[in-house]
Structures are given as C-alpha cells and as structure tokens.
Amino acid sequence: MTLATTLSVRTTGGCGAEIEGVDAARASDAEIDLIRETVFQRGVAFLHDQKMTPEEQIAFARRIGPIVVNRYFPKSERYPEIAKVEKTAEQTTNIGGGWHTDHSYDEAPAMGSVLLAIQTPPSGGDTLFADMYAAYDALSDGLKDTLSRLKAHHASAHVFGEGSVYAKTDQAVLAGHKDVPEAIHPVVITHPDSGRKVLYVNPAFTTGIVGWTREESLALLGFLYTHAVKPQFVHRFQWRPGSMAIWDNRCTWHQAMNDYHGHHRLMHRITLDGVKLS
Ligand code: SIN
After folding, report:
1. Which residue puts its alpha carbon closest to atom 6 of ligand 1?
2. CATH, domain 2-272, list 3.40.50.880, 3.30.1370.10, 2.170.30.10, 3.60.130.10
3. pLDDT, tens digit, for every residue of 185-219?
4. Rounded to whole angstroms, how far apart are CA atoms 193 and 159?
5. Mind telling me the catalytic residues?
6. Average pLDDT of 160-171?
7. Ligand 1 pocket, 171 CB below 6 A?
8. Cα(253) to centroid(ligand 1), Å
C-alpha cells in the first residue's frame, strides 16, 4: 500500500504493519486515513523516529479517535489524557506483563491505544502483539459455529480492585480501586470498522463463559488462549525512543515483556474510546 508521498506500509510477520515515511505530528488527512485503515485491517501500526510533544501526541490521537482516560494508570503530571506506563530501575513488576486487550471489562471497550516510547532499556522491553482475526480464521468451522452462540464475562476487580494481583507488587498504585466494572460480550464479535469476525476473549479480563461452569469455561478458554498465541499470529515489536504503536483492542492482544530489571522504561499511552460490541 503506498500514497503519492514517500509513505509506505510493510506487513510485519504475525500481526501488524510498519509505516515508514510519516511524521505523525504533521500527518495529512490522507495519511491519517491510511494509518486508521492499517490499524483496523492489521491490528496495529508501528512507526519509528516520531518527535512529538505531549500536546502533539494528544492531537494525533484525537485524529485517530476520541480519547478515553484510563481509570487506573498513573497520569502524566500535566496531561490527564496521557497515562504513564512505567517501570523504574528499582521495580520488578511491569504494567501489562500478561496477554490482554485493554478495557474489555467495559460495556463499550476501548477501541485502541497510541503508545509512544519515551525511554527504553538498552535491550529487552519489547511488546508482543497477537492477531485475533487470524486466530479466529484458523479455527475449524465446527468450533466457529459453537463459539458463535457463546458470550463471556469480563471483569476488572481481580486486576485493579482491592487485594487484586497488582496489590501484592511494586505496581500497587494500580490496585485498590472500588470502581471495578464488569461486562458481557460475544465470544466472537464483528469488528465495527472492518466487518470481519474476531475472537474476543483474553486471559487477563475474561472470567468465564456465560451459562458454563468455571471448570468448563477454563477448558474452552485454555484451548483458545493457547491457540491464539501460536507463533504465526504473533509479532514482537522492538522499541526505541520515538517509536509509536497504534493498536486496535478489538482484534489484537498485547503483552509487555518484563526482561530488563535494573533499567528504566517509560511509555506515554493514550487510550481511544470504543463502542459496544456485537
Ligand atoms: C500496555 O499494556 O498498555 C503496556 C504495553 C507496553 O508497555 O508495551
């Protein structure tokens, strides 16, 4: 895919696409359209060497979609729209270190995120992205038919509530919240922008299949979770300061690697608002 400018889109293995030749802070309307379309079709767009002030990141994100403020992440001092995804040299727990898709516990889950690398460790700190279009497409027709009739519970309390997983770590600032929404979504959704079918459950926030026992739910979800991260569906993205990923939560999972103890990693994340899924 190319525009009349020098901009080019190169599919990255497993998931996503890298866009070269775009200055996101000064992008034309046609370039923004192409970034949005890449995100909707490939799940995530990767850009490098972006020089952006916080104001420019906010303005860019607004051109991709409306912003929603994450309830739990620490905010950047002057910009509530920007969440700080940070692990200091002293901390041992990172944020987003397990496979997940953001805000699936909301009735209208976040559409996506715009994550900008501010400080990266000398090595490590990559993010894995998995393609839930491809994971769904690779299932048998029989299982697709069964999944098409199922709904799943999604919850936030066990991750961000009182006594939740983060509470026992050095990222405890993320825990202890009373505002802990839950939602029910179809296990297979139709992506609101691409119209394609997507597998929409995730290991962090999906707590069970509606009408099934916990044991039954764990068996099915366990199979789907193993299937969904087969190497052919996953891309590993290496950051450097100025790298940016714009991802679509409806058709991807992501996981931040925690393999750089003793070094500081700081990312600025803006979350984009979404719609109810069906
Ligand atoms: C996140 O889950 O938003 C964090 C991703 C990352 O830090 O790479």
Report:
1. 256
2. 3.60.130.10
3. 999 999 999 999 999 999 999 999 999 999 999 99
4. 29
5. 100, 102, 254, 269
6. 93
7. no
8. 10
Residue whose CA is at the smallest distance from ligand 1 atom 5: 256
Q: Which residues touch 275 (CB under 8 Å, ≥6 apart)?
A: 108, 111, 192
Q: Token pair 């697709």 is at which residue?
A: 144
The mean per-residue pLDDT over the stretch 247-270 comes to 98
**277 CB within 6 A, ligand 1:** no
Q: Where are the domains of the chain?
A: 2-272
159 lines ligand 1 (CB under 6 A): no
| Nearest atom, ligand 1, residue 94 CA | 7
Strands 44-47 and 206-209: unpaired
Report CA-CA distances (Å) from 152 to 10, 104, 165.
35, 10, 21
Band the pLDDT of 5: cuts 50, 70, 90: low
- Angle formed by the axes of helices 29-42 and 54-64, nearest 10°: 70
- 102 burial via Cβ count (<10 Å: 0-12, 13-18, 19+): buried
What is the pLDDT averaged over residues 71-82? 90
